[in-house]
């Protein structure tokens, strides 16, 4: 009863916050044809005596984990291919570290209970902890430079939508490049890494990366006559152009954000543009824009970036979209979101996002500097960063849906040791030990006298490719029978008999061919 | 100022709880010659404007992560060799799930703040969440059987001892076998897995596994005349025999636990025994013990277990220790702790521990069963389990200490692209792209015109084995220079020149030989 009430209360709560755009804008709304998260984990359906996981969290069974680990390994290979190293930070941070970084969304932060110590919160993303890490350890880094990736869980008290894969505990895969370099080179590398990461997952739909530059956007607003203190507010209204029409956004700019209709119309002439890199040529002919220092800098950056992306063979993946603004205040340069090229309207969520944030580390360097020792430990200047975050939960849903027709092998067992006849438990244990000693993944049935049929079934259910079979005859002759479970050749149905001493070599050579 | 006060308060708090033995008894007290966790992460030393990690938590830099991931990978290979699959559960659980499982230690549980929803706590170990998982999903498992491993962080509001590697957020590596099988077979497999796991880490000291059986211990207490309701209390006093003398423990049994001196003396005659499996022969001649059903069952189990451990070649690793009791109430069969065979008294902590717990899953199955649907979802009976947990933080300290003399390569970069002369940024980018396309891990300096010397230094610092070098000459002739950075042969100092078209093949063949 309590639970039901709490659920209703949460729904009401959500009605109030539903207009808030999630940070990093990794919308996690797979369309209905996607893999449906197994609801059995969640109490709202299976609710026996509170034996369930907390709201918005779920368990992952061994088959789901096999898919998830394969996904992480693929992404990690790309990250390492580009020189990435990994670090680890705690799952919770001091509350002060997160304060003032997430704007309105900070109400979604999970706090730990006060238990006579510090005030702490579960991390909301991996970006702010990374900036905190750089502020603490920057001095120890070689030239304050670091290419780091991190795959970890983050926490948001958002309204969960389990069937849509939107959770309160979910993974992010981040790659960030910290340090001062020549312009746009790390930015180009990050975008290449993003493309390689999404490519390696073999998703059913191609993707495009919407890209824009905060300095161009700010320049446009200035040129159109938006007051400086209204720029962020106008920016977040413009960001809605992926879900609303220009007429609707224009109305919001005028009635909610207080712009004059003429200013809104000027903005409209810019932000409805999207296209490939040639859009830059159009902007370069705009004298008003070029005269604005912010816009001019942004245009110069983009021009260089497109050159580099061309060399990296990923320029054609980009959509230069002047309406892309991104929710977060801290971006200072290029911003981007990867979205699937949609087969349906439903599929509009982004699957990765990021941007350049040159001032975030600096937020941790400010403050009282009277203590000499403290001063010594700090990096001398803010460390500029560019990075991206892959929304792996949504990608996981897509990958699970692809598996619906195919069985998933969740173990890595290579050999099942089977006895025919009288159980032969100790002989099976001896064989398993020999296989383990040789580094072969092997198992057997934990029964004194298992039925042959049950052993076959177990071997088949676990999709184990090889069986080593012993019976009284084989034992007497110091031999074993080896059978490939997938052998379609009926003549080989019974397997081949080899000397016990040759067993390991025979198995290794068969495994190598698989 | 606030922080200092909180710190002092915590110390006082700890004085009160210092007698509590940690759950799973994975004491994490490396001796002074071990790797000292990098204190720079912790605010108590670097405390500039609260930019630090919460008390008892720390960051791991890229070199520490390289060591940690290698350790996890080694352990995971062993787990998979024995047919283990992995699952994932949330980092926090409903408070009720953890309630009543940890006895006095439950005061160390981290709670989440009440924010208008459920009451939740960070997980204290991976065992109770696993039992909750089995209670929820047992029906979906094949015959209620599961061999699962899990590597994850757990949380305890213990007094941190950073220099000793005792943290509030730390990893556990667990392997558990759930399901009904024939006696002692999974138990033997778990102990073999434990031995293989510790062996694969190549620790500087050999280890032994102290082993005992709860049923033997309970039988001994009954035979000696301990009242049934005092058994757990006496048991936890006996467990201190690894740190206290018998005279001290005897005194505690009499004054604190209320035993008659004669009863204590009888117990003393049993629990001071430790040795190899032949101790079992002594027990088998003890008619009083054999007449006790609990002890008789325990002795029968141990006899069978030692047989199996002999087949698995790990019997010689065991120390049968009748004083081993383990803190937790829920163990119902064999119990064990792995400890290094000590070069110093300091080194007494255990590095892994576990036991059989047949009733824990049942605790989640109890409760109101009037609802037919609920009943249908539950497993019909408690699922018996045996498992173990490796105290990886302590092992990590030992491994880091071994690395003190040797540098750690934290990246997996194989090739560094270097230019001689005029920068050649775009040419370096082209080369890097070709390498990435071929699946080679490659990087280059993010500078328009980097100095040659700086590129060499970066390549050497990052311990990258191969350099691809281009200058104007090479470019004009469509060639590149390849240099093995570790080549000791001075004649090869400048590397070899190959046609650009042969670059990938040349690099791949050199990498294969490394």
How would you characterize the overall build of this protein?
Two copies of one chain form a homodimer. The longest helix of chain A is centred in the N-terminal third of the chain and has 20 residues, at 62-81. In chain A, helix 5 (185-200) packs across helix 12 (293-311). The radius of gyration of chain A is 29 Å and the shape is elongated. Chain A starts with a helix and ends with a helix. Chain A has helices spanning 2-17, 62-81, 95-98, 127-137, 185-200, 214-224, 231-238, 246-255, 261-271, 279-284, 287-290, 293-311, 360-365, 372-377, 392-402, 425-437, 452-461, 472-476, 503-513; strands at residues 85-86, 92-94, 120-122, 146-155, 169-178, 207-213, 274-275, 318-321, 334-340, 352-357, 385-390, 415-419, 442-444, 466-470, 479-484, 496-499. The first copy, chain A, is of the alpha+beta class and 514 residues long. Chain A has 19 helices and 16 strands. In chain A, the strands form three sheets. Chain A has a nine-stranded mixed sheet. In chain A, strands 13-12-14-15-16 form a five-stranded mixed sheet, with helices on both faces. In chain A, helix 16 (425-437) links the parallel strand 12 (415-419) and strand 13. Helices cover 39% and strands 16% of the residues of chain A. Chains A and B meet through helix 1, helix 2, strand 1, strand 2 and helix 4 of A and helix 1, helix 2, strand 1, strand 2 and helix 4 of B.
């Amino acid at each position: 009863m309590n639970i039901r009430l709490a659920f209703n209360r949460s729904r009401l709560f959500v009605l109030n916050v539903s207009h808030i755009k999630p940070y990093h804008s990794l919308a996690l709304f797979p369309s209905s044809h996607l893999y449906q998260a197994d609801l059995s984990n969640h109490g709202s359906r299976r609710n026996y005596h509170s034996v369930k996981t907390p709201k918005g969290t779920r368990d992952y069974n061994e088959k789901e984990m096999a898919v998830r680990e394969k996904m992480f390994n693929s992404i990690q290979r790309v990250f390492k291919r580009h020189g990435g190293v990994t670090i680890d930070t705690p799952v919770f941070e001091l509350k002060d570290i997160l304060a003032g970084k997430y704007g309105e969304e900070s109400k979604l932060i999970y706090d730990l209970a006060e238990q006579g110590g510090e005030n702490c919160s579960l991390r909301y993303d991996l970006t702010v902890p990374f900036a905190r890490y750089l502020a603490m350890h920057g001095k120890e880094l070689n030239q304050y430079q670091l290419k780091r990736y991190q795959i970890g869980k983050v926490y948001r008290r958002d309204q969960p939508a389990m069937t849509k894969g939107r959770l309160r505990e979910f993974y992010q895969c981040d790659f960030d490049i910290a340090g001062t370099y020549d312009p746009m080179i790390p930015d180009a590398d990050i975008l290449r890494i993003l493309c390689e990461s999404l490519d390696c997952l073999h998703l059913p739909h191609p993707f495009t990366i919407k890209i824009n530059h905060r300095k161009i956007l700010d320049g446009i607003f200035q040129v159109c006559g938006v007051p400086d203190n209204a720029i962020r507010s106008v920016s977040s209204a413009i960001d809605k152009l992926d879900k609303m029409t220009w007429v609707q956004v224009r109305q919001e700019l005028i009635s909610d954000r207080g712009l004059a209709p003429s200013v809104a119309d000027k903005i409209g002439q810019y932000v409805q543009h999207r296209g490939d890199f040639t859009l830059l040529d159009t902007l370069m002919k705009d004298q008003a824009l070029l005269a604005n220092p912010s816009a001019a800098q942004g245009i110069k950056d983009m021009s260089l970036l497109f050159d580099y992306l061309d060399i990296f063979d990923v320029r054609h993946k980009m959509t230069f979209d002047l309406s892309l603004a991104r929710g977060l205040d801290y971006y200072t340069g290029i911003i981007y979101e990867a979205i699937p090229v949609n087969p349906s309207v439903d599929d509009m969520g982004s699957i990765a996002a990021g941007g350049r944030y040159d001032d975030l580390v600096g937020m941790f360097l400010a403050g009282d500097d009277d203590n000499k020792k403290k001063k010594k430990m700090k990096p001398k200047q803010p460390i500029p960063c560019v990075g991206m975050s892959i929304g792996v939960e949504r990608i996981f849903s897509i990958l699970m849906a692809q598996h619906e027709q195919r069985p998933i092998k969740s173990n890595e067992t290579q050999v099942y040791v089977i006895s025919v006849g009288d159980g032969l438990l100790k002989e099976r244990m001896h064989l398993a030990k020999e296989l383990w000693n040789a580094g072969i993944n092997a198992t057997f049935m934990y029964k004194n006298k298992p039925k042959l049929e049950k052993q076959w079934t177990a071997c088949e259910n676990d999709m184990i490719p090889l069986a080593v079979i012993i019976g009284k005859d084989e034992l007497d002759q110091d031999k074993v029978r080896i059978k490939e479970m997938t052998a379609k050749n009926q003549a080989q149905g019974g397997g081949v008999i080899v000397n016990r001493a040759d067993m390991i070599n025979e198995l290794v050579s068969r495994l190598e061919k698989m």
